[in-house]
Amino acid sequence: MRKKIVAGNWKMNTLPAEGVELAKSVVAGRGEVCSCVNFIVCPPFTHISEVVKALEGSDIAVGAQDCATEAKGAYTGEVAAQMIAALGCKYVILGHSERRQYYGETSETLNKKMAQAYANGLTPIYCVGENLDEREAGEHFNVVKAQIEEVVYNLTEEQFANLVIAYEPVWAIGTGKTATAEQAQEIHAYIRKVLADKFGAAAEECAILYGGSCKPSNAAEIFAKEDVDGGLIGGAALKAEDFLAIGKGF
Ligand code: 13P
After folding, report:
1. Of 26, 99, 188, 220, which residue has the fewest beta carbons closer than 10 angstroms?
2. Is 3.20.20.70 the CATH classification of the domain at 4-247?
């Protein structure tokens, strides 16, 4: 049985006190959602520590939104995977389209980041997805295939067993435009096939999340699809009520 996951990517939002408040509100309402749902919150680096404390005693996990390519050293401004792990994070989002687009992240840098994540016991949430031009040109399958082959195919079987994938079409992120449940299922099934081509039956166990304007009103329909195992939530993760309501979509 694959894990059901609802992960909140807070991006560059909330001040520390607001993040703590948000985390506490999620804990307060968590009991209303099936215990079968694994919740993860990914705050900015600056308040991971306080959010971890606010979540103590709950089953809500914490992730970072990125990590450095190197283990440590003279890399001003970077945050190492071992630092993130030391704060109590279990997950790290890698390859988010905003990082690919605005910070020039490539498969080469992502291979290094994945290695750092695994070396420090973190589970990567590896993001893939096409932009609008690519979708309109019918290139979306090839785009996600390349993003998987260039990075995920380099993992060992053991590493792959500890990976979460997030499919996030760039045209649906923060735009209010969601992929239809059918569009999500079509590409999730394709992603699982690409994973199976390399890792065989283990691909059946890999959680593949949908991300892009996922909200309480559309989560249930999308999560009902066979190959959709949850969501990576941006805007709607900033309101505990909406984040929890998305969890109720299962
Ligand atoms: P939105 O839910 O705000 O569209 O963001 C999705 C996302 O990028 C999550 O990583």
Report:
1. 220
2. yes
> Which atom of ligand 1 lies at the shortest distance from residue 97's CA?
8
Q: Phi/psi at 198 (nearest 5 deg)?
A: -100, -40
| Residue 121 reports pLDDT greater than 90 | yes
For ligand 1, the distance from its centroid to the CA atom of residue 17, given in whole angstroms, is: 22
Read off the pLDDT of residues 59-102 as tens digits, 9 standing for 90 and up: 999 999 999 999 999 999 999 999 999 999 999 999 999 999 99
139 noted as active-site residue: no
Closest protein CA for atom 2 of ligand 1: 234
Q: Angle at CA 127, nearest 5°, toward 245 and 192?
A: 90
- Atom nearest to 212 CA in ligand 1: 4
Band the pLDDT of 177: cuts 50, 70, 90.
Answer: confident
End-to-end CA distance of the chain: 14
Give, using CA atoms, the residue closest to atom 9 of ligand 1: 234
For residue 101, how far is the Cα from the chain centroid?
A: 17
